[in-house]
Amino acid sequence: MGDMSPLLRRRSRKSPAERTVTLIGKPGCHLCDDAREVIKKVCEETGAAWDEKDITADEALHSAYWEQIPVVLIDGEQHTFWKVDPDRLRRALVR
Fold first, then answer.
1. Would you say residue 42 lies in a domain?
2. What is the DSSP letter of 19?
3. Number of domains in the chain
4. Rounded to whole angstroms, what are the CA distances from 10 to 3, 16, 45, 48, 56?
């Protein structure tokens, strides 16, 4: 009873178009600039939405992530930090 059929599992997965990638960074961060370009490209390819949050404007984000920026979240869960691998991001969005 606890196991879902493969068909139900497949239906419960989100398509890339239903997912959101969030870049957490700050102005003047060259790694953030690099991450932004990767995220934009992968999201354009997959149809995923993306947004960006500035740690200098949000104390909670600053406290949580200041040593790791840029940080990438997928649907609110941390995916990676510092360097964004486009293939890994793409795989995470389509699985």
1. yes
2. -
3. 1
4. 13, 13, 21, 18, 39
Exposed, middle or buried: residue 89 (CB in 10 Å: 0-12, 13-18, 19+)?
buried
pTM: predicted TM-score of the whole model, two decimal places: 0.83
- The tokens for 11 are 């239906």
Q: Tens digit of pLDDT per residue, the chain (95 long)?
A: 445 445 444 445 788 889 999 999 999 999 999 999 999 999 999 999 999 999 999 999 999 999 999 999 999 999 999 999 999 999 999 88
| Cα–Cα distance for residue pair 79/57, rounded to 1 Å | 22
- 23 is a domain residue: yes
